[in-house]
Design a protein that fits this description.
single chain; alpha+beta; Phosphorylase Kinase, domain 1; Transferase(Phosphotransferase), domain 1; two-stranded antiparallel sheet; 9 helices; membrane
Length: 287
């Protein structure tokens, strides 16, 4: 299937992904999980959560293999790889490859996928690791949420999630996942991660940039909050449609990264905000 694991697509904290193909020639991505993961919780998490899903913006699990300590997950192959490689690059390259309209479609697609996980499937799922690396792009750049190794399943009545220790990736983890002083852990924790990711898509940079010469630009969300109109013009020139798209993405993202979970919108509300009129969007309190 994988030609002796010769075509490596990438490597992450939970294992290595190889390109392969099924007997009928259908291209697949085979994720070989790291063997040193104790009782295999991340494998069980991924199979249990993603096998319950069916949505255009969720990566499709085709099968899995469990052989002693060896664990593999088989997914549809995504020819355009992860979103990460497209956004952390030169701004002009992003615009020539994707353009603001396509970036906006990706933002909306991920929002719909998260809305489905939080509300639409049989068992509610909180992902806990939304970031550009875990958003895969098919041949048409349709986004697919992937990597459910940290996900938590909830009953439909359960809104508060109990966690032992923080989980996620630095830069995207909601404050309440670190400290319960900020509120309870819930699907709003994914909303925060989503907002941080959208701001990185808008900026083509990490939200925390210690290499920048201007201290005011070190933390990108604060810079955007103070300079939203200026940034939109700088990013889009005199393209009025693009300015509106970028402004909408920034406003929605700033709502998503509010410090207190109760101040963040649900993903259903996020979808409505993105698909609604920009005149209905107000600048939120400073995150």
């Amino acid at each position: 299937m994988t030609k002796s694991f010769t075509d490596k697509l990438g490597k992450g904290g939970y294992g290595t992904v190889y390109k392969g193909s099924l007997p009928n020639g259908h291209p697949v991505a085979v994720k070989m999980l790291t063997e040193s993961k104790g009782n295999g919780e991340e494998f069980i998490n991924e199979v249990a959560s993603i096998s319950r899903t069916s949505h255009v913006n969720i990566v499709r699990l085709l099968g899995f293999c469990l052989d002693g300590s060896k664990r593999a997950l088989i997914y549809d192959f995504m020819p355009n790889g992860s979103l990460e490689k497209f956004i952390f690059t030169d701004r002009s390259q992003i615009e020539s490859t994707l353009g603001w309209n396509k970036l906006f479609e990706i933002v909306v697609g991920v929002a719909r996928g998260l809305e489905y996980l939080h509300r639409g499937c049989n068992t509610r799922i909180v992902h806990f690791d939304i970031k550009p690396h875990n958003i895969l792009l098919d041949q048409d750049f349709c986004p697919k949420i992937s990597d459910f190794g940290l996900a938590k399943l909830c009953t439909s009545k359960e809104s508060i999630i109990s966690l032992i220790g923080a989980r996620g990736t630095i830069g995207y983890i909601a404050p309440e996942v670190f400290s319960r002083n900020f509120g309870v852990v819930s699907s709003k924790s994914d909303v925060y991660s989503y907002g941080m990711m959208v701001l990185e898509m808008v900026g083509g940079r990490k939200n925390l940039d210690v290499t920048t010469t201007s201290s005011s630009e070190t933390y990108f969300p604060h810079y955007l909050y103070k300079n939203i109109n200026q940034y939109c013009v700088e990013a889009c020139g005199d393209n009025g449609e693009a300015i509106e798209i970028v402004r909408k993405m920034i406003l929605v993202a700033l709502w998503c990264i509010q410090t207190m979970p109760d101040d963040r919108p649900s993903m259903s509300r996020v979808v409505n905000m993105l698909e609604g009129d920009i005149s209905d969007l107000q600048l939120p309190p400073k995150p």
